[in-house]
Design brief:
The chain is α/β, with parallel strands linked by helices and 579 residues long. The chain has 3 domains: 8-321, ABC transporter transmembrane region fold (Up-down Bundle); 338-422 and 502-579, Rossmann fold (3-Layer(aba) Sandwich), CATH 3.40.50; 433-495, no CATH class. 60% of the residues lie in helices and 9% in strands. The chain contains 18 helices and 10 strands. Strands 6-7-8-3-9-10 form a 6-stranded mixed beta sheet, with helices on both faces. A 4-stranded antiparallel beta sheet has the order 2-1-4-5, with helices on one face. Strand 9 and strand 10 (558-562) form a beta hairpin. The chain is elongated. Bound molecules: adenosine-5'-triphosphate (ATP). Adenosine-5'-triphosphate (ATP) binds at residues 113, 355, 358, 362, 382-388.
Length: 579
């Protein structure tokens, strides 16, 4: 798979405006770090003075002035370095937090199926490792670049001031370091891209394998799963080793260049001293400047290398940010806001839909007119578009043609949040969170009172079993609700849906996977939930179809509508269990 390639500068321009960074903090930290480098340079200059004025003549009285100045510079340098370093770190951490929030916010607006192509583990890798790498390029690298470049300039000027001939010899290595860094940067970038992609694939594999552990163990497939994890782990290791090989060559190559340059300086310095163009103190100062200048040049080279390799992570994040979100323009002026209370009348006007990238229409010219409060069973063979109908209602996707109306308003012209506020989805998978039972029920309406919550649990036939849990509503549901049985999870999900007061309901196979007893237990709560709400009940279960006011049968993209032979909502509404 080919990836869009971007330069470090383009990556910086993409990500820098995404997060509001405290620019004053960036500037102050850079100034402080440059000041620290200035103090170091000043202190080194004093080495030469001490050598020539104190050590060579053996004059202790000349020691105290330069010594006090050196100490003062050391204290000021340490203070500036500590404050500048902290401020730079503070900016980086805030940038990281802001960028992760921003990318996560984008993901929340992407239709759920569009996220599937990444895989959960890979998305986690992008939101953690890749974001940190982007931070290193966009927030940390500019400060490092400014301070290293300023440090290099300060020490280079000081070196020129001491001996311009020796300084020229030293700086002749700079172009070598620069081109070397560019070349290594290109190699590191492709190595990093391979490493990040492999990391994402391994994370997805691990996530899937761990989530499916009951199946893996029950089918005795542990060895096969171990094999898959090992193979992907080996790919990751190889990609990591390629990075290590490159960086282990880059460091020593820089040191080699430095050694050659130092030897040349010592030789030329010795010749200058013999010609009386330079004092021993001057050569010592120069050597000390060199000791500081070379690391700065090396740092600049490393910034070039790591900036190039960081673009690989930038590309992976840009892929996420370019994944299309649900269109949520400003409300269309021709669509008046919904009149409260929303009744839940649903109309499909000649609706057609194809998934992006697949030519065949899933729905083709669907026309429906559903009066408020009707229970509509949606049936049809697998893959005929029953769930797709619900996704269009929730605006996870937009119809390719036609319109969907809620109480006569085109939902495409209303804010997405407004549409979803009036629709409750009860997905096939109960989707509980790792919190308490209370938190899971209140997810439907966080500001509901305890009395409302308990009333919803009673109506969902959940109150009885919740009361027997050790901590009642404060008992942990476990990861994905694992502390509860399948039927109990379903009833908690029902209570959560009950708490929402939305007039439209989408139930996706509410009895799938439940045995007869559990199905029988949720029938009455289901009828209470659907009462008075326009309900789309996606189901293959004939017991549920028989309860409906209308049955929609999907086939070949079109819909036929029938009235079930057994009229449904007749007879008294079943009473909820006693609280
Ligand atoms: N995200 C997607 N991208 C591409 N095609 C999709 C996507 N989701 C579903 N489809 C295709 O659209 C068609 C309708 O899918 P949908 O899930 O709506 O069917 P369904 O009637 O609900 O099936 P089932 O009864 O098996 O749940 C199927 O052919 C499916 O392969």
């Amino acid at each position: 798979m080919r990836h869009a390639r971007i330069s470090p500068l383009a990556a910086f321009r993409t990500f820098w405006p995404l997060v509001s960074v405290n620019r004053a903090a960036v500037l102050v930290s850079a100034v402080l770090l440059v000041a620290a480098a200035g103090c170091d340079a000043g202190a080194i200059g004093i080495v030469g003075v001490l050598t020539d004025d104190v050590l060579t003549p053996g004059d202790l009285t000349a020691f105290w002035g330069p010594a006090a100045l050196w100490l003062g510079l050391a204290v000021a340098g340490a203070g500036a370095s500590a404050a500048g370093g902290y401020l730079a770190g503070w900016t980086s951490e805030h940038f990281l937090l802001g960028l992760r929030d921003r990318v996560f916010q984008h993901l929340q607006a992407v239709p759920p199926d569009a996220l599937d192509r990444f895989g959960t583990g890979d998305l986690v890798a992008r939101l953690t490792g890749d974001i940190e790498t982007v931070e290193s390029l966009v927030a940390s690298a500019p400060v490092e670049l400014i301070t290293s470049a300023a440090g290099a300039v300060v020490f280079a000027v000081a070196a020129f001031w001491t001996s311009w001939q020796l300084a020229l010899i030293t700086l002749s290595a700079a172009p070598l370091i620069w081109f070397g860094a560019r070349w290594f940067g290109t190699l590191m970038r492709s190595a990093t891209r391979a490493e990040r992609d492999s990391n994402g694939r391994l994370a997805t594999l691990l996530e899937e394998s761990l989530a499916n552990m009951p199946l893996v163990q029950a089918y005795g497939r542990q060895q096969a799963e171990r094999g898959k994890v090992h193979r992907e782990g080996r790919n990751w290791m190889r990609a990591g080793l390629r990075q290590i090989r490159l960086s282990s060559v880059y460091g020593p190559m820089g040191e080699l260049v430095e050694t050659v340059s130092v030897l040349a300086v010592i030789g030329a310095g010795a010749w200058q001293i013999s010609e009386h163009h330079l004092s021993v103190g001057g050569l010592l100062s120069f050597a000390a400047f060199l000791g500081y200048l070379h690391p700065k040049l090396q740092e600049l080279g490393e910034i070039v290398v790591s900036a190039s390799s960081a673009t690989a992570a930038c590309e992976r994040l840009i892929e996420v940010l370019r994944t299309g979100t649900v269109r949520d323009d400003a409300p269309r002026p021709d669509v008046p806001p919904l009149a409260e209370p929303v009744r839940g009348a649903i109309t499909f006007e000649d609706v057609g839909f194809s998934y992006p990238g697949s030519g065949d229409p899933v729905l083709d010219g669907v026309r429906l007119d559903i009066a408020p409060g009707l229970l509509v069973a949606v049936t049809g063979p697998s893959g005929t578009g029953k769930s797709t109908l619900g996704k269009l209602l929730l605006r996870f996707h937009e119809p390719s043609r036609g319109r969907i109306l809620l109480d006569g308003r085109d939902i495409a012209g209303l804010p997405v949040d407004e549409v979803r506020r009036h629709i409750t989805l009860l997905p096939q998978d109960s989707m509980l969170f790792d919190g308490t039972v209370r938190e899971n029920i209140l997810y439907g309406r966080p500001d509901a009172t305890d009395a409302d919550m308990i009333a919803a649990a009673v109506a969902a036939d959940a109150h009885g079993f919740v009361s027997t849990l050790p901590d009642g509503y404060d008992s942990p549901a476990g990861k994905r609700g694992n502390n509860l049985s399948g039927g109990q999870r379903r009833r908690i999900a029902l209570a959560r849906a009950m708490l929402r007061t939305a007039p439209v309901l989408i139930l996706d196979e509410p009895t799938a996977g439940l045995d007869d007893d559990s199905t029988a237990r949720i029938m009455a709560p289901l009828r209470r939930l659907t009462a008075g709400r326009t309900t789309f009940l996606i189901t293959h279960d004939l017991r549920l179809t028989a309860q409906a006011d209308l049955v929609l049968h999907l086939s070949d993209g079109t819909v036929t509508m029938t009235v079930p032979s057994l009229p449904a909502r007749t007879g008294p509404e079943p009473e909820p269990e006693a609280a």
